[in-house]
Amino acid sequence: MKIRLTKEFNFEMSHVLHAYDGLCRNIHGHSYRLFVTVLGEPLNQKDNP
């Protein structure tokens, strides 16, 4: 039996574009959503105490 576990993370980041000639040259930020998923099978407790 395979098990899949997913965790969602939301975070904000800011940065500047020093070599850019426009509004993005100033500090500005973005919002991100990251999903981390792991997939595996449970250990048999009789064989692996």
Describe what this molecule looks like in 3D:
Helix content is 0%, strand content 53%. The protein has one domain. With 49 residues, it is mostly beta strands. The chain has a two-stranded antiparallel ribbon with strand order 1-2. It starts with a strand and ends in a 9-residue tail after the last strand. The chain contains no helices and 2 strands.
Quick structural gist:
Helix content is 0%, strand content 53%.
Number of strands: 2
Order of helices and strands: EE
Q: How many structural units, i.e. domains?
A: 1
Tally the helices: what do you get? Answer: 0
Helix content: under 10%
- Low-pLDDT segments, ≥5 res: none
Look at the helices and sheets and give the structural class. Answer: mainly beta
Mean pLDDT value: 92
Side-by-side strand order of the widest sheet: 1-2
- Strand-residue proportion: over 45%
| CA gyration radius, whole angstroms | 21 Å
Largest sheet: 2 strands, antiparallel
Distance between the termini: 19 Å
Features:
single chain, 49 residues, mainly beta, two-stranded antiparallel sheet
Question: Strands, helices and their partners?
Answer:
Elements: E1 3-15, E2 28-40
Antiparallel strand pairs: 1-2
